[in-house]
Amino acid sequence: MSTLQTSKRLRSPPILGSGFLGMQTTIKYTIIVIVSLLSTAIILSLVEGVLCAEDNSGSNSQGKDGQLQRLSDCEIIKQYQGLSSFAFNPRSVSREDSACLSLKMFKEMGFVRFFSIPEETLFRFILRAQRGYRDLPYHNWHHAFAVLHFSFAVLTNCRLIEKQHFTPLEGLALLTAALCHDIDHRGTNNQFQLETNSTLAQRYRDQGSIMERHHIAITFSLLENSDTNFLAHFDGHKLNHFKHLIRQIILATDLAVHFKLLPEEKQMAEAGFDRFNSRHKELLRSVIISCADLSDQSKDWATVRAVAKLVYTEFFAQGDQEKRLGQKPITMMDRSQAKLPQLQVDFLSHVVIPDFLVLLSIYPETQGCMDNMQQNLVKWKKATPYFESQTLLGRDQLDILSDKELNNISLWPQM
């Protein structure tokens, strides 16, 4: 949308009559318009930056010819066994292979054929989304791919479309939203955007979910770009409904939104999911994407520790920035105050497991995920005295996470 189009949406300045009061009002309104246009122009330039990003993933990846070559190469990539299993570890997949496997998930769900999606355009969308993620410790492409994989695993193992719990369009929206849910993340949370009055905060402050709304804007821009719009053949009504689904699903990844929805999600699960109830379907989409966003916690102990190191590296970096700005970071982002095992115990107990319990109550097929999380919870509790003893020796907690001694923690005596 051009700034000219944006300005047409702004009302004409109110006419309060001539004289000083009228002049004041006109001046104030003019300033508001200028600020609004500048903010919009900056946001549009950020979006354009993602759309025009260079692909540096390999010598054959430049331009459409390179992308077609990569699409062809997808046919001969390493075979990954058990892709649809909850036990599959998406973080074991290389960056290059992950783009191919992303396409494979859309195809295996039957969405490419059902919706007559041009495969080349969908692949360009995936590659552009991949490039839209910054090189951050945690909120990067590998995280997006992990969220996509868990969403795919739920659709497949729990047979959501076969049970008519999801329509094919909802399934397509879930995978697309999972792929883009953190695109162009800055490595800092919504509160940091507010505290620093960032450009994104200026744009989305009044709407809430600042980063999530930015992710949505980038996603929609990809869908409006002729090179990456794999839904160009959709009519206006279907496309608008698809965008509505994308918006709802990505907004549900904001933990503030999640905590507001959780009581109602629990009530839905207790009453029994009703596929004819539109609110139930909306809540189900929120539960699934929230669990997908947290799904690293359902993996093996080694993966859980590796991911914890990535998460707290990013958290502590934000905390360091806040200290430089004269602000006091919250405990989990303060490297001098955080107690990692206890933070993980609290995170699993109060955030992750309650969400997965809702999913489990509807889909018993996810029992293995719950079992893993319960085991990891026990291991974090066991690890607490070890971390305490090592930090007393002056060791960094992030380094302790990689200790080989923790590999066999299941053999340690109960606390």
Q: Can you walk me through this structure?
A:
There is one protein chain. The longest helix is centred in the N-terminal third of the chain and has 32 residues, at 20-51. The protein is mostly helical and 415 residues long. It starts with a helix and ends in a 15-residue tail after the last helix. It has helices spanning 3-9, 20-51, 63-73, 95-108, 111-114, 119-131, 141-157, 168-180, 190-195, 199-204, 210-224, 236-251, 255-271, 278-293, 301-324, 340-362, 367-392, 397-400. Helix 4 runs parallel beside helix 7, helix 7 (141-157) packs antiparallel against helix 8 (168-180) and helix 13 (255-271) runs parallel beside helix 16 (340-362).
Overall geometry:
globular
Q: Treating each run of at least 4 consecutive H or I residues as one helix, how many helices? A: 18
Written as H for each helix and E for each strand, in order along the chain, the element string is: HHHHHHHHHHHHHHHHHH
Fraction of residues in helix = 55-70%
Low-confidence stretches: 1-18, 25-40, 54-61
Could you say which structural class the secondary elements and strand pairing correspond to?
mainly alpha
Average pLDDT figure: 88
Radius of gyration: 23 Å
List descriptors.
single chain; 415 residues; mainly alpha; 18 helices; 64% helix; 0% strand; disordered N terminus
Summarize the structure.
It is built from 18 helices and no strands. It has 415 residues and is mostly helical.
